[in-house]
Structure to design on (734 residues):
C-alpha cells in the first residue's frame, strides 16, 4: 500500500508543535499548576461584561457565527477610526499569521524575522515552504534597521516584527517604528504584531495608515482583553490586502459567542484600564521579587516580565524546570543569548505570592 | 509601488465565499429572518448540559484551550472504541477539510468529488491548487462506483464523499460504503464526510477501521449536537495520517469553552436521542406540507428535507427568493438537475409553522 501521497512540502515538514501546552505538562506531572504564568495569558480575565455577553450567546451557538464578522468589524473600525474593509477578523493572531503566510509565501520565498522571535510565525513560514532569514537581537531588542536591511538583501516578500516584543518584553517607540515602516522595501509586507500593544506606554504604536500596502498590523483579544481561549484577533491593513484573506480564510470559522464577547470587551474600556493597572502592579512586584534574589527584570511593555538570570541558558532552563517542579508554570526564550532569561506573566496577587514563595526554593535546588 | 507579492496560486484565486451568510442577507434586507432554515443548523440547539458546561467555562477563557484536546479525544476514543491517536479535533469540518487539502493537494493534484457536492471542499481544493474532477449525481444520489472509477482514471490523491449527502439528503447503506472503501485506489485518500450521520438510519455508517490508511472520516458537533457556532469537529483515521495534521494545524486554535461543551454534549446521548426524534418529526411535517402544495420531499437521512419542486432551476431559485421575501431563510442545490430543488432544515414547531404559512404565499407570487 502506498498510503496517502502527501505534498512534497508537507512530507518534508517535521511533526512539531510551536509550544507544548501547560495541560500537557500537567498530565505528564500528574499535577495541576498552582500558578499559570508561562503563556502570557491574562490571569485577570475578560471584562465581566464580556463574560456575560459570551454566556448569553452560548444558547445561540446552534447558529454559525456571522462569516463577515460585521458587528465586530464595525465596532473595531469606529474604535480605530478606520473603515471595516481595512479589518479582517480571525481565530487568533496565530490563525491570521497562517493565512498571511499562505498568501505571500510559497516554495523558497524569502522571509525575514528576528532570531528567537515568535516561533509560531516560523512554523507557518516553514509550513508554506518559505526560506526564513533571521537577524539577531540587538541587546534585548529586536533590531528594526538590521531587519529592513536583511529584507532588502534577500528581497523578502514578508517580514515579521513584534512591538512590544515577545519573548523579551522590550519595545520601540512610534518614531522608530514609523522609520521602519517608511523603509520597508517595495514588494515586502511588514507584519507588525501588536498583540501586547495595549500594555505599552503611549507613543508606542505608530499611526495606522490603511493606504500603506506594505504593512499589516495584528491585534488580539487574547492578551489585554483576557480572552485567549475565545480565539478572536484581527488584522488591519490596506483594503486590497485585507480582502485577499477572503481567498483563503475559513469563512465560517469564528465562534459565535466569542464574536459577542469581543464586541462587549471592546466596549468596556474601563475594565481594560483596570487590567492595565493590575498588570502594571504585578510586573512591579515581579521585578521587586526577582531583584531580591539577585536576578534582573528587563523593562517590559507587555503583560510579562522577562528576567535576566545573569548566567547561561543551561541555568535558565534549569530554573524554569525547578519552578515547574514547584508547580509554577513559566517559560523562557529559546535562543541564546536571550535564553539566559526566564519569562513570567503578570498574575493576580495570589499568583505572584506563589511565585514569590517558589522562586527561592527553585533557586536553592540549583545550587 | 509593487505592493504585496502574492503567491502565484493566491493571485489566481477569486475572492469568493463558499456561502453567503444569513446575517449578510438580513443586513441587505434590513430585516431579521423569522425562521432560519437554510444552513442546516440544528434549531433544537445544544444539550442543556453542554450549554451549562460552556457557560461555566467562559470565565476561564483567559486561558488558551488545551492544544492537544486531550479530554475530548479521550472521550471520543472511548465513544467510538478507537484510540485517541486516531482522532484529530479541529474548529469545524471546514477547518479540517482545509488542513486535509493542504496536506494532500498542491499544484495540479487530481481530486475527485461529485458535481454539486459541498462547495467548501471545492474552495479548499482550489485554494491549494488542485485539479477538481467531478462526477454527476446518479439521480439524487452521489455515485460511489463512478467516483471510484474517476479516482482511478485521474489518479486522484484525494476524493470526497458525503454520506448522508448534502445538499440532497440522500444516503447509501454501510454495505455500499464498505464496497466503496474497499475499492479506493491505492494512493488515494477517501474523505468520508459524515457530518449528518447521527441523523441516518442504523446501518448507514460502515465500521470504523483505523488501520486503513486510505480513509479519513469527518464528524462534527455542528449538526446533531447543535453546536455549529461553537466550532468543534473531528476526523478519524490512521494514526500516521492523523498525526500529520500536527504539521499544519493551528495548535492553539480551539475555543476553550467549546472544548468543554463538546465533551458535555457527547456525554448527553439522551438529549441527542430527543433531538433526533424532534428532527424526524420536523422532517415529516415538512414533507406533509410540501406535498400539500404539490411539491415532492426527497427521502432524507439528515436534518433537512430537499424538496423537488418539479420544475427547473429558475423556478426553484425564484421560490427560494420568494421564501426569503417571506422572511424564511432557505437555500438550494447549486447545480442542475439538483437545482430543481429547495432545501429546508428541520426546525422547531414554531419554525415549521412559519414555513407552512410562507410557502403558499411564496408560491403564489410565482404564478
Amino acid at each position: 500500500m502506498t498510503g496517502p501521497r502527501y505534498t512534497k512540502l508537507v512530507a518534508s515538514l517535521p511533526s512539531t508543535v510551536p509550544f507544548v501546552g501547560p495541560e500537557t505538562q500537567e498530565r505528564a506531572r500528574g499535577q495541576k499548576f498552582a500558578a499559570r504564568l508561562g503563556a502570557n495569558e491574562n490571569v485577570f480575565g475578560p471584562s465581566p461584561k464580556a463574560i456575560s455577553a459570551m454566556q448569553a450567546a452560548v444558547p445561540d451557538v446552534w447558529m454559525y457565527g456571522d462569516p463577515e464578522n460585521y458587528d465586530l468589524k464595525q465596532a473595531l473600525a469606529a474604535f480605530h477610526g478606520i473603515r471595516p474593509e481595512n479589518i479582517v477578523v480571525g481565530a487568533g493572531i496565530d490563525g491570521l499569521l497562517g493565512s498571511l503566510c499562505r498568501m505571500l509565501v510559497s516554495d523558497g520565498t524569502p522571509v525575514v524575522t528576528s532570531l528567537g522571535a515568535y516561533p509560531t510565525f516560523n512554523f507557518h513560514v516553514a509550513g508554506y515552504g518559505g526560506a526564513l532569514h533571521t537577524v539577531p537581537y540587538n541587546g534585548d531588542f529586536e533590531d528594526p534597521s538590521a531587519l529592513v536591511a536583511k529584507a532588502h538583501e534577500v528581497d523578502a516578500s514578508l517580514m515579521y516584527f513584534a512591538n512590544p516584543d515577545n519573548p523579551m518584553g522590550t519595545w520601540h517607540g512610534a518614531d522608530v517604528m514609523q522609520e521602519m515602516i517608511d523603509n520597508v522595501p517595495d514588494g515586502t509586507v511588514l507584519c507588525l504584531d501588536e498583540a501586547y500593544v495595549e500594555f505599552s506606554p503611549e507613543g508606542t504604536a505608530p499611526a495606522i495608515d490603511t493606504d500603506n500596502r506594505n504593512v499589516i498590523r495584528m491585534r488580539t483579544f487574547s492578551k489585554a482583553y483576557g480572552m485567549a481561549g475565545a480565539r478572536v484577533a484581527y488584522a488591519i491593513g490596506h483594503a486590497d490586502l485585507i480582502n485577499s484573506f477572503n481567498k483563503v480564510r475559513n469563512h465560517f470559522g469564528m465562534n459565535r459567542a466569542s464574536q459577542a464577547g469581543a464586541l462587549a470587551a471592546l466596549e468596556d474600556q474601563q475594565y481594560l484600564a483596570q487590567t492595565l493597572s493590575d498588570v502594571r502592579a504585578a510586573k512591579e512586584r515581579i521585578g521587586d521579587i526577582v531583584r531580591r534574589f539577585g536576578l534582573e527584570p528587563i523593562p517590559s511593555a507587555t503583560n510579562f516580565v522577562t528576567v535576566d538570570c545573569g548566567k547561561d541558558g543551561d541555568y535558565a532552563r534549569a530554573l524554569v524546570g525547578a519552578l515547574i517542579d514547584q508547580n509554577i508554570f513559566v517559560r523562557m526564550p529559546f535562543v541564546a543569548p536571550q535564553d539566559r532569561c526566564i519569562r513570567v506573566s503578570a498574575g493576580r496577587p495570589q499568583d505572584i505570592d506563589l511565585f514569590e514563595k517558589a522562586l527561592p526554593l527553585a533557586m536553592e535546588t540549583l545550587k
